[in-house]
Amino acid sequence: MEYREFGSTGIMVSEIGVGCGGLGGEAKEGLEPAIERALDLGINLFDTCDTYAESRSEQTLGRVFRNHPRERIVICTKFGGVIDENGDWHRDISIPHLHEAFEASCRRLNTDYLDIYLVHTPPRDICNEEDLFAELDMMVDQGKIRTYGLSLEAGDFAIEFVNATKGRGIEIYFNLFAQEPRQAFLDVAREKGVGILPKVPIAAGVLSDSFVPDDPPADDRRLRRWGPEKYQRFAEYHKKVRPILTANGRTMAQGALAWLLTFPEVSTVIPGISSLERIEETAGASGMRLTEDEMAALDAIDGGVLVGKRVQ
């Protein structure tokens, strides 16, 4: 496993991390051995949130982490909302909730500090919340967190945040089919020493060999969510990028992760955890980079239609 500094924070993270959205939910129970295997393979970055699977994601990680030295693990978790009795999520970025959420996450994760603490799906005007960021700065000074930031989608929003605060962590929607941050944010991230965690790095599985471009099964969740027209657009691009991503013995998912890791501004990638086999596959992408010719070939698809844009 290879490691990179998370921006200029001094936090060293594995190139391949683990995204733990849904971990602990019914579809992702019994994955403790996969987390253990990730640690054995040198993965140290685990991305979760206090509301993932009604907090069971953090609880599951905490059960595994108690058996390992804390200094071997880099925990990235999030706060910013509460789930009511009906299961609906409501935003709460108040200072009292910040402290309540922090303490609860630490209990579940069996730790007394967090490495990277992110505001989850923040409101666009969050940069006006000077008291909130002053409190987060104080928590950094107190050793409760090592750095903080936002989990968001838009590159211009990320620029506004890093210019207005001392936060140096950005989790952003970024993959081969969602390249907006490439043109909107990477230069600023490099200049400001920001750590970048691309979320949904294999595009909800479209950038993997498990995606079925032709005649998808009727129960494919992406087909249900997107509808046949949007699904077909992704299917056509899947066919065009697959030969390039799978060159040199890579699986398609490894190629998609290698594409992201070819950008030095990217600190770590966080594919989801679904099985022991998937952990083995994604961990194998560490050290992989696409060649200049491969990057250029991807950029040239349909006259550069993917560059800096998001497939809709």
Could you give a short description of this structure?
By secondary structure, the protein is α/β, with parallel strands linked by helices.
Walk me through this protein's architecture:
By secondary structure, the protein is α/β, with parallel strands linked by helices. The chain has one domain (3-205, 254-303): NADP-dependent oxidoreductase domain (TIM Barrel), CATH 3.20.20.100. The chain has helices at residues 32-40, 56-65, 95-109, 130-141, 155-164, 180-184, 186-192, 221-226, 228-245, 252-261, 276-283, 292-299; strands at residues 3-5, 12-14, 18-19, 45-47, 74-79, 81-83, 89-91, 114-120, 145-152, 169-173, 195-199. The strands form three sheets. The protein has a seven-stranded parallel sheet, with helices on one face. Helix 1 (32-40) links the parallel strand 3 and strand 4. The radius of gyration is 19 Å and the shape is globular.
Rounded mean pLDDT is: 95
Tally the beta strands: 11
* Main sheet specs: 7 strands, parallel
Corresponding CATH superfamily = NADP-dependent oxidoreductase domain
Strand order of the largest sheet: 3-4-5-8-9-10-11
Q: What fraction of residues sit in β-strands?
A: 15-25%
**Overall number of domains:** 1
Estimate the helix proportion, in percent. Answer: 25-40%
Q: Rg to the nearest angstrom?
A: 19 Å
Run of helices and strands: EEEHEHEEEHEHEHEHHEHHHHH
Distance between the termini: 34 Å
User: Could you name the ranges where pLDDT drops below 50 across 5 or more consecutive residues?
Assistant: none
Shape: globular
- Do you know the CATH topology? TIM Barrel
Task: Please name the CATH architecture.
Answer: Alpha-Beta Barrel
Structural class designation: alpha/beta
Report the CATH C-level class: Alpha Beta
- Please, how many helices? 12
